[in-house]
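Notes to self after the Tuesday call (sharing in case useful).
The group wants a holo model before anyone commits to mutagenesis around the pocket. I volunteered. Ligand is shikimate-3-phosphate. Logging inputs and output together so the record is complete.
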Amino acid sequence: MPYRFTSTALHTICRSGDEFAKSETMNSERGARSDEKEKSTNGKHSIGHKSIVLVGLMGAGKSSVGRRLANVLNLPFRDADTEIERASNLTIPEFFEIHGEAAFRDGERKVIARLLEGPQHILATGGGAYMDEQTRTLISQKGCSVWLKADLDTLLKRCLKRNTRPLLQQGDPRQILDDLMRKRYPVYEQADITVESADGPHEVVVSSIIKALQAHAGHTTSAAIC
Ligand code: S3P
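Result:
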């Protein structure tokens, strides 16, 4: 069942990338307090009631972009991995080591289901979450999915900055990411919206997401975006 923009809402989410970039600069110059006024014109009502769910491989920028997107849309941000860490009191590598991947996937499914039951927010999922059929179905019902698509070099460059991904510790990270791309990209393709996440400022990706939401709404007669 698609969710819909009101015409005012459509206008607010559909600020062009240039306008967004300009306002970002102005916001940082004005400081955090005056940002509130800017955000209020960009309120959560502007994207209907569903959460925006970011999917994609490790290093696609789901968390970094998600945090910024939430800020622009004045919505809460949730990160599924962080929620798992909080609930288990373990880091993701510790969780994998102690409980194994199957238990992690189980926890991931439950955490995402719980989050999607809650109020509208921006949700960054872990790279494997969307591969779970149950989770995919739930996301399509309760959210608007956005695949952050990146090329191998970009993913690798970002992933190598941190040592927190257990799947990449099991061999050559480039080869592992390449294999995951082959396996997962056909599934990520099912997302409602696809946005390129190129190497560069995350603000550019945020702007692309907002434009993509606009384009998606424009493709339907009733301004339904998901
Ligand atoms: C995983 C991605 C990670 C994390 C876990 C497994 C995956 O999240 O959930 O290490 O299967 O791709 P990020 O995509 O946020 O790195």
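Two things stood out.
Residues 101-117 form the longest helix (17 residues).
Residues 1-46 have pLDDT under 50 and may be disordered.
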